[in-house]
Amino acid sequence: MPAKKHKPEEIIGKRRKVEIVLGQGGTTAEACRRIAVSEQTYYRWRKDMVA
After folding, report:
1. pTM, to two decimals
2. What is the pLDDT of residues 21-33, one digit of tens each?
3. Which residues of 14-26 are buried (b: 16+ CB within 10 A; e: fewer)?
């Protein structure tokens, strides 16, 4: 089964959800579980979006 390609709009929305969870004192692992992506994917998104 091929990997799902997330659209830029979806990535931005999911990253915002992660930031909310982290702001409330949650862990990165917990936040990634909530948005259904791996921690590696989250960190890749974060790295790619920083400019």
Report:
1. 0.82
2. 999 999 999 999 9
3. bbeebeebeeeee
